[in-house]
Specification:
heterodimer, A: Rossmann fold, five-stranded parallel beta sheet, 4 helices, globular, B: about 300 residues, Rossmann fold, four-stranded parallel beta sheet
Amino acid sequence: MSRILDSGDIDRALKRIAHEIIERNQGISDLLLLGIPTRGAILSERLARVISSIEGGIPSGTLDVTLHRDDLRLRPPRPLSPTSIPSIGIEGKIVVLVDDVLYSGRTIRAALDALGEIGRPKSVQLAVLVDRGHRELPIRADFVGKNIPTSASEKVSVLLQEIDGQDGVDIEAAK
Amino acid sequence: MNHLLSVNDLSKEAAISLLTTARELGVVSEGGHKKLPTLRGRSVVNLFFEDSTRTRISFESAAKRLSADVINFSAKGSSVSKGESLKDTAQTLQAMGADAVVIRHGASGAAQRLADSGWISASVINAGDGTHEHPTQALLDAFTIAEKLEISNFEFTGLRVGIVGDILHSRVARSNVLLLQKLGAQVTLIAPPTLIPVGVHSWGVDVNFDFDSAVGNLDVVMMLRIQSERMNELFFPSAREYSRSYGLDKLRLDRMTARSIVMHPGPMNRGLEISADSADSQKSVVLSQVTNGVLVRMAVLYQLLSGASSL
């Protein structure tokens, strides 16, 4: 197992992503962040804090995609995580989805479906801490903390203070 | 978990997980109004050998809101009236590809029989078997209590719940006693001695024959329906006397504590076990029970049907 991002790297990546989001959208009007539980939701909160310190307050919420997953029948039942959409809604807004690792792209597909159930955003962008490749769907991230080339048998773990007691991204070789 | 036959199939953790799932489903489906694609392609059979309005409709809406296909079967007007056995009926449904069978039957243990017999491979959900159990009713009652009394973690320690009326014939009471105790509540059964089951001392509940002395000390008053269809003998001298002693009328309602709530599994016999005043009062959460019933049944179907079928 080796650590590819430490706590400082994660902070810097989030700061850069925050600036990129503001730059790309020329400010934060009509912008809102939606984190995908569990760790995406935490990253989204952190990102919202960074953006707030640069540009002013930005609404942030969570979006559970479990009910829209296409692999439900391949695994034991998953517990649901909270969904909380900011009160301003997503209609006509620019939604930035935030997740920890982008891999097959299936979670993001489920998230797009889940969003479609809630409303019609003006546009949807994607921010991820780690992009490890191996996409199975035509999906890409707009903002990436770090691109990490991996083999499919390796395991990437994102650790965050709020859940795991420390910050870091580890990569574990195939067994 | 393959089947839901009894509240005892659930550990405390599993019950809380189901209730939490129901709450999240309520959020994402906007109170159950929006359709979710989760169980697309799965089919749920409502196999009802006894009359029912809300339970059947509730299961039907729950399944439909998760995009499952629903087949409704009621014994009336089916081959059951030609003498077809439960086994043949069940196997017919299996052959049609049912993934879950929601069964209500007049015989206690019918759901267990269906689940254990090996006749079918579908998940079996008990929607009321005789005087035995009605686990989804208990779950929706617990969900409603938590919602109305603002207990977000479903820990009911210290909560005082009175179940009033026909305990003897009530599967709702049995399931509720099991679940409420699991969640930590203190349950008091309030009924005339003739409507208290034999062996109740082993349930770990308090029994009180005097509603008036109990009503002021309860956080939840759960009224039960007087089940005239199961009453082959006289259990009390007259309906009026029962109503006078064990009915929730305006006087008793006024003596309840400020935050307490009134529940009833329905259908209500207005004027018998519950007066119209009480049924329509601010304290009555009867309609919330119905609404929450759909969410809880969605959670049960999700839990039983969403995972890999071999598990």
